[in-house]
Amino acid sequence: MTHSTNTDQENCIFCKIISGEIPASKVYEDDETIAFLDIQPVNPGHTLVIPKDHFENIYTTPVMTWMRIQMTVQKVALAVKHATGADGVNVHMNNESAAGQVVPHVHIHIIPRHNDDGLINWSHNVYKDTEEMKTFAENIANELKVENGENEN
Ligand code: AMP
Ligand code: ZN
Fold first, then answer.
1. Residue with the nearest Cα to atom 18 of ligand 1?
2. Active-site annotation holds for 105
3. Each residue of 89-103: pLDDT tens digit?
4. Helix, strand, or coil (residue 49)
5. Residue 52 to residue 50: CA distance in whole angstroms
């Protein structure tokens, strides 16, 4: 089964990093994944982890590839923290343009954070009432049943 067209991959900046066509500050590589510095870091040491195969986002990445990405993320997160003297790290992912995804090759951001870096992650909201919250929970649980091929009722 194909997961993307050749055109997607040919135009993909991260595929070009994998092939060596464009340079990157690589910090880690194994048979399935690589990690390199984000060229426009939130904080210095901001690192991206990507699979070597081209998949667009979280939905289309095969589970075994996803697991390998996460194994690399866990390893690199600690290295980024230690190497940058960070007080913490954000592990972040954007899926689809509505969520801020710009590069359509699945990637995880590892962002070193410092107690005094002044950054704010995002603001929080509230539900109208507990009924609304319950409805969201039920709808998501039902979607999961559909994904698992279970009956919705
Ligand atoms: P996203 O908004 O989640 O798609 O993030 C894409 C990230 O890729 C941004 O943070 C960019 O700064 C980063 N980026 C784009 N081009 C390059 C590149 N050639 N090398 C390293 N990072 C890049
Ligand atoms: Zn790609």
1. 39
2. no
3. 999 999 999 999 999
4. strand
5. 6
